[in-house]
Amino acid sequence: MLMLHTLHALTLVSRPNTKWRDLLPPLEGEQPLWASLYSTLVTRPVGNSSWRLLHGAVSTGTYLARFNPIPDTCLFYSVRETLAHVYLECARLQPLFWLLTNLLLCFWLHFSPHLFIYALPITKSQDLLVNLLLALAKTAIYKTRERRLADGVSCDCGAVF
Predict the structure, then answer these.
(1) Nearest-angstrom CA–CA distance, 120 and 114
(2) pLDDT tens digits for 122-149?
């Protein structure tokens, strides 16, 4: 293991720690904190969806179309399905984002793509609850998309959330 790390150290150092660096450059002092994704409130399956999203380890139509004869378009709308589209840009997410905006205002926070993707650094106990809400929203997006793939059934993300 140590030998592998030594052989690939230069490659690992220059590699970004998240796939989102190009699309959502971190704000000053902002960086993805892996500890924010898992906590006593955020269980492993829910935290795993946040971790997979940060690493870009979610299969999208654009990715799958390279290996299978399937269209690379969104399951809900006829636009190219990228990771950013699935989790930030798809029109079906607007009711969920509106709900999150209202919930986060209770914590004196404003919803933003940065907060949604990178999560909130844990400095006080309310941050645990905020990260749980964000992780559950990501899981709702993932589950409704998977349900559409499996059954062809359209389901509201806000209702699943």
Answers:
(1) 9
(2) 788 888 889 889 999 999 998 898 888 8
Domain tally, the chain: 1
* pTM of the complete model: 0.80
Q: Please provide the average confidence, as pLDDT, over all residues in the chain.
A: 81
For residues 147 and 144, give the distance between their C-alpha atoms in angstroms, rounded to a whole number: 5
Q: Is residue 9 part of a domain?
A: no
Contact at 8 Å (CB) between 127 and 42? no
**Residue 59 resides in a domain:** yes
Q: What is the pLDDT of residue 134?
A: 92
Q: Which domain holds residue 95?
A: 31-160
Rounded to 5°, the CA angle 155-40-137 comes to 20
Question: Is 85 within a domain?
Answer: yes
Residue 19 lies in a domain: no
